[in-house]
Amino acid sequence: MSRVVEVIREAVLPIVEERNFELVDVEFVKEGKNWFLRVYIDKPGGIDIEECALVSEHLSGILDEMDPDPIPQAYFLEVSSPGAERPLKTEEDLHRAIGSYVHLSYYQAMEGEKFHEGTLLSVTDDTVTLEIKVKTRTKVIEIPREKIAKARLAIKF
Question: Are 47 and 41 in contact (CB under 8 A)?
């Protein structure tokens, strides 16, 4: 985790916790010639735009007062919901997603595939169990946790 992300995480955490929101993720990325500081927040039932604006306002004020400035270059601050396909980054995220439709991508192909989508059945320290559809059949696969590069909720079509 970069130093900027650590500093921002520490600064924003009290703001979101005070409002009983969840801090989902913090990113500091360069896209083209611009830098973006993205803070993703959520709460049960979803977060709305007014709540995002409130957190953005408070965080912006805190960042303006920080000395030394943790982000000396120009950047855009974005505070938003993680969206319908929110990333599953923590242990808690994975356990909360049991029973949900998820997308798992792998470091290397598993069962001939670089990713699978299906219903998350269970999570242990070592494996994730997923129910996937192969043509017209349903199949249950167990994926070693160390093989999973990224996990997120997915929308089933």
Answer: yes
Contacts of 121 (CB under 8 A, 6+ apart): 98, 99, 129, 130, 131, 140
- What is the model's pTM? 0.79
Domains of the chain: 3-80 (3.30.300.70), 91-153 (2.30.30.180)
Residue 55 burial (C-beta neighbours within 10 Å; 0-12, 13-18, 19+):
buried
pLDDT at 145 over 90: yes
Q: Is the pLDDT of residue 76 over 60?
A: yes
Tell me the C-alpha distance between 105 and 142, whole Å: 14
Q: What is the DSSP string of 62-86?
A: HHHH-SS-S--S--EEEEE---TT-
